[in-house]
Amino acid sequence: MGEFIMENRVILAIESSCDETAAAIIRNGSEIVSNVVASQIESHKRFGGVVPEIASRHHVEQITIVIEEALKQANMKPSDLDAVAVTEGPGLVGALLIGINAAKAFAFANNIPILGVHHIAGHIYANALVQPMEFPLLALVVSGGHTELVYMKEHGSFEVIGETRDDAAGEAYDKVARVLGLPYPGGPRIDQLAHEGQEAVAFPRVWLEEGSYDFSFSGLKSAVINYKHNMDQRSEEISPTAVAKGFQESVVEVLTAKTLRAAREYNVKQVIAAGGVAANKGLRTSLEKVFAKEGIPFFVPPLKLCTDNAAMIGAAATPMFEAGIRGNMMMNGRPGMELKSWVD
Amino acid sequence: MIWLGIETANAPLSVAVVKDGKVMAEVVQNIKLTHSAGAMPAIETILANVGVKPNELDAIAVSEGPGSYTGVRIGVTLAKTLAWTLQKPLVGVSSLKVLAANATLFDGLICPIFDARRGNVYTAVYKGTELDVVIEDYHDHIDGLLARLKALAAPILFVGTDVDVFWDKIVGVLEQNAYRAALHEDLPRASAAILLASAEELPSIEAVHHFTPQYKRIAEAEANWLKEQKEQTHEQ
Q1: How far does the signal peptide extend, from start to end residue (chain B) (predicted)?
Q2: Which of B163, B92, B157, B94 is nearest to B127 (CA)?
Q3: Domain membership flag for residue A328
C-alpha cells in the first residue's frame, strides 16, 4: 500500500493502557482536532510507581468525562465521527479493558465501526501529527515499557529489528532514580541532573553480539546499584549528578549508535523517535547531532505527543481505517500484544 | 419505558430488556467467557432480538458491585458509556441484592455470597420480599461473617455459585439454620437488577459521569499506604 488519500476522515481515539485516561479527535490522520489527557501521576506518586488496580479505578472514574471533553473541545457530535479507535494492547490488562469497553459501547450506541490499535504503532504514528511520514522509515521507540527499533517500509508495515532483552530504557531510568533517592517518575529528573553534572562516573556500554540491534539495560542498572553499594560501604558520598551523567551517557551512546547503524543498513528516508523517553533532552540532542551529520531527516514529536495520549492512537488508526480494517464487539485487552503489520 | 440491565459483577453474565414491567428477553450464562469478550456481544444480540434500537432505551440498570474488580468495571464502563452517549439515566444496584432477589420467598434471612479469595467474602443479609437490609454489603473473612450470622439465630438461605466454596464451614457453624438455595437461584439475573433499579428515583443524566463501582474494599496498595501513613504519624 502506498499513500492513502482521505477526505475529512474523523476518528475518535481512546487510550487507557497505563496511567493516563485519554481521548482525542483526529482528522485525516494528521490533524489534532482535540486531545484530552487525564493524568493519574499524582495518585501513583504515593506508591513510587503505577499500581494497576489503582490505575483501573481511576480510568473508570474518568473515561466518559474525558471522551465528552474531547468531543466538546472539537465542537463535534458522535454523528460527525467515522470510527472509534482504541488501544487494544500492550499494557495493563485491567486498564486496557476500560478504554476498550467504553469504545465498544460508544461504537455500538452510535452505530460506527471500532478499531483496535497497537500502543507502539500509536507512539510511532504520533509523528504523523507533526509532519508526513516518509518511507522507508526507522523508528526508535523508547518508553517506560518499551525499547524497540522498528523498520517500516510503508504504512502498516512494522518490522521490529531490535528490542530490549530485559529492562526498557525508561524502566532503567526510573530504577536508577530510585537508587539516587529521586521521587517518581525519576526519568526526567535524571536527564536534568545529567545536564548539571561536569564529571561522569564511568559505567559500561552493553552492545550484545556484533551486529545485534537488541538492547540490554539491566546490567547497566546493576552497575549503578553496585557503584552506590561500594561507595556506601566505604562511607563515601556519591555525586548524584556524576552518576546521572554517567548512566545517561551509557544509555544515549548505545541507543544512538544502534539507531544510526540501522538507519544506514536499511537506507531509510526518515528516522523518528517516539515514546516517553524520546522527550529526554540528552537522547534527543545526540540523535539530532548524528543524523544532521548523516544527512537523514530526524524528528521527535513534542513532549505531549511523546508521553501516552490518544491523538497518536487516532493517527495510527486512520490508515488502518482507510485500508478497511475493522474490529468487533468481541475485542479483548491484549496485555502482551505483538506489533504486527496490517499490510502484506 | 424500556430498560436495559447489565450484570457482570462476578463470573456469571446476565443482560435483560424489560419493557413496561415485562421481561422481553434475558440472557443468563455461567461459562468460561470473559466479560470483555462476552458482554457487549450479548447486549448487541439481545437488543437485536427484541427489535429495540439503542436510542429507544429509556434507562439503564447495572449491577455496581461488589464482586470481581474487573468484572464490576466492565459492566459499569459499558453501562456508563451507553448511558452518557445515549443521554439516558443510569441506576446502579448492589450485585449482592440482585442475587438475593432470586430468593425473596424464603421464610427467613437471605445471605448472598461472592468469593473474595483467601477465605474472604463479599456478603450481606436481607429479609423478605422487600429485601430489607439486615447486614449491609461488606467484605469480611468467612469466620467473621459466620460469627455474626450465628448471633442472628435464624434460618438463613445462602445464595450464589460461590457458596459451595464455604458450604462445609457454613453448616459446621450454623447447623440446621443453614439452607442452600436451589441451583436456578444461584445465578444473578439482569431482570432483577432492573426490577430493583425501577423502584429507585431516576438520577439526572449529569450524574452518569460520576457513577463509580461499589468495590466495598480499598485497593491493597492503598490500604498498605494508609497504614504506613498512620504508623509514621504515630512515630512523630
Answers
A1: none
A2: B157
A3: no
User: Looking at the domain assignment, is residue A329 inside a domain?
Assistant: no
What CATH number has the domain bearing residue B118? 3.30.420.200
Rounded to whole angstroms, the Cα distance separating B71 from B96 reads 14
C-alpha cell at A160: 521490529
Task: Report the helix count and the strand count for chain B, using DSSP H and E.
Answer: 7, 10
**Dihedral sign (CA A93, A98, A101, A104):** negative
Q: Which range among A21-25, A300-304, B43-47 shows the weakest confidence by mean pLDDT?
A: A300-304
| Overall domain count for chain A | 2
The answer, yes or no, to whether residue A337 has pLDDT greater than 90, is yes
Q: What pLDDT does A5 receive?
A: 62
- B235 lies in some domain: no
CA angle A295, A301, A307 (to 5 degrees): 140
Full domain range(s) for residue B212: 2-95+188-226
**Torsion angle of C-alpha atoms B1, B214, B160, B174, degrees rounded to 10:** -130
Angle between helices A187-196 and A281-294 (to 10 degrees): 70
For chain B, the distance separating the N- and C-terminal CA atoms, rounded to the nearest angstrom, is 59
Contacts of A229 (CB under 8 A, 6+ apart): none
Helix ranges, A91-239 (H): 93-110, 119-125, 169-179, 187-196, 218-233
Shortest CA distance to B170 belongs to which of B152, B138, B146, B140? B146
What does the DSSP 8-state code read for residue B185? Answer: G
Q: Do residue B206 and residue B138 come from a single domain? A: no
Give me the DSSP letters along A259-277: HHHHHHHTT-SEEEEESGG
CATH number at residue B215: 3.30.420.40
Domain extent at residue A295: 135-300
Q: How far is the C-alpha of B213 from the C-alpha of B193, rounded, in Å? A: 15
Q: Give the C-alpha separation, A261 to A306, whole Å.
A: 23
Pair A94, A225 in one domain: no
At position A20, the amino acid (one-letter code) is E
Q: How many CB pairs under 8 A join A and B?
A: 101
The DSSP result for B101-164, as a single string, is GGGTT-SSEEEEEEE-STTEEEEEEEETTTTEEEEEEEEEEHHHHHHHHHHH-S-EEEESTTHH
CATH number of the domain bearing residue A79? 3.30.420.40
pLDDT of residue A4: 58
Same domain, A76 and A95: yes
Beta carbons of B82 and A53 less than 8 Å apart: no
Interface list for chain B against chain A, based on CB atoms closer than 8 Å: 34, 36-37, 39-41, 43-44, 54-55, 69-70, 73-74, 76-82, 84-86, 208-210, 212-213, 215, 219-222, 225
Q: Which residues of B79-103 are buried (b: 16+ CB within 10 A; e: fewer)?
A: bbbbbbbbebbbbbbbbbbbbbbbb
Q: Is the pLDDT of residue B178 over 60?
A: yes
Query: How far is residue B10's CA from residue B163's CA, in Å, rounded to a whole number?
Result: 13
Are B33 and B85 found together in one domain? Answer: yes
What are the tens digits of pLDDT across the range A5-54?
A: 667 999 999 999 999 999 999 999 999 999 999 999 889 988 888 899 99
The count of structural domains within chain B is 2
- A54/B84 touch (CB, cutoff 8 Å), yes or no: no
Q: Tell me the chain B residues in contact with residue A331 when contact means C-beta distances shorter than 8 Å.
A: 36-37
Do B214 and B110 lie in one domain? The reply is no
A343 in any annotated domain: no
